[in-house]
Amino acid sequence: MANIIDYVKVHGGYKINRTAPFCELDAIVLSRFSYLPFHKIKLAEKETVASVAEKMRKLKSKDFGWPEDAEYIEAMGFSKRFSTLKVTDYCSKNSKKITEQFQAISIHVNSFKVFVSYNGTDSSLHGWREDLNLALLDEIPAQLSGAKYFKQIANRYPWKKLYLGGHSKGGNVAMYSAITAPDLYQNRIIKVYAEDAPGMSKKVVEKDTGVSVLPRIIHYIPQDSVVGRLLNHSEKFEVIKSNAKNFWQHNIYSWEVDLATKKLVRSKVTKKSDFVDKTLDRWLQDADETQKKEFANLLFKVLEDSKIGTPVDVGAAGIHAIPPLFKSFRSLPRADRGIIISFVKKLLITAYEVTRENKS
């Protein structure tokens, strides 16, 4: 089945205009743009998608966050639909000290519209830690940086309407930036696109006062979604079909595209997704804030001391990750080991309870 790269190749010959208007696949494509390794090239103040593609053609495959990204930007650079779009205002912040990993860039759809693209999680451990902090804190540094960036773009291009978009944490930052923006900026938002993104704290959603932006947010999740169902969601969502399994459905290159209708293929959430969502939600609600923070600190200490890397690296290593993780765990003081064991036991008990409820 086709994916967004195939969409760029097949429909890339048609510029964005009245006869070939901006569509949801364009939004997915531009949301992915912020994942590119801009720090690996020298960006001018103003670029085009084609000029970025040309500079990135010199990079090696290992320089990209995902293997498909190299083919993606090459296809973008050759397409009439995207190649001439102006690219401006690249911003990147990466701080282990305050646990922040943020990246954003703006793509100008035409003279009157701009797409603000927010990056998701990179390969840094503190980037993953910031993701976990979404469940512990009302606001995280990347959200605050995203809101500030959005206001800067709105002020810099006051005559332009705005799209916001992002995948994973990037989608969360896009939603946060829109929800917390003053009405003056919210009124210029056309639509917000979030792809398999964690939700917000209730306190953040309550900030959407005045003319609500929630009806203009659309959230896409794959059928086995885990990440995109975490925390609180009040926005509209669409379930789409992925050809991957389990957590790997989080990869938007696995999302199936109907090239005839120029839409993502729709699906339904699976029982597996419902089970994981219900289990994690109850598990997190049952633990108090102190317990969650202690567990998070210890979990990432084990990961850091093991030298394996992020949770994705652990998954890729499979059974080979067990010895270094266990060694790191055993090096913790007994009391700290007890906190981890207690928290994991609660998760298993919660999963058992949810399983029994589903069978009854």
Topology:
Layout: H1 4-11, H2 24-33, E1 46-48, H3 49-56, H4 68-78, E2 86-95, E3 100-110, E4 113-118, H5 125-133, H6 141-156, E5 161-167, H7 169-179, H8 183-186, E6 189-195, H9 202-205, E7 217-222, E8 236-240, E9 257-258, E10 263-264, H10 271-286, H11 289-306, H12 311-317, H13 322-330, H14 334-359
Parallel strand pairs: 4-5, 5-6, 6-7, 7-8
Antiparallel strand pairs: 1-2, 2-3, 3-4, 9-10
The number of distinct helices, counting runs of at least 4 residues, comes to: 14
Strand order of the largest sheet: 1-2-3-4-5-6-7-8
The SSE string, one letter per element, is: HHEHHEEEHHEHHEHEEEEHHHHH
* Proportion of beta-strand residues: 15-25%
Largest sheet geometry: 8 strands, mixed
Number of strands: 10
Brief write-up:
With 360 residues, the chain is of the alpha/beta class.
What features would you describe in this structure?
- The chain is α/β, with parallel strands linked by helices and 360 residues long.
- The chain is built from 14 helices and ten strands.
- The strands form two sheets. Strands 1-2-3-4-5-6-7-8 form an eight-stranded mixed sheet, sandwiched between helices.
- Helix 9 (202-205) links the parallel strand 6 and strand 7.
- Helix 3 (49-56) crosses helix 4, helix 10 (271-286) packs across helix 14 (334-359) and helix 11 (289-306) packs across helix 14 (334-359).
- The radius of gyration is 21 Å and the shape is globular.
- The model has no long low-confidence stretch (mean pLDDT 86).
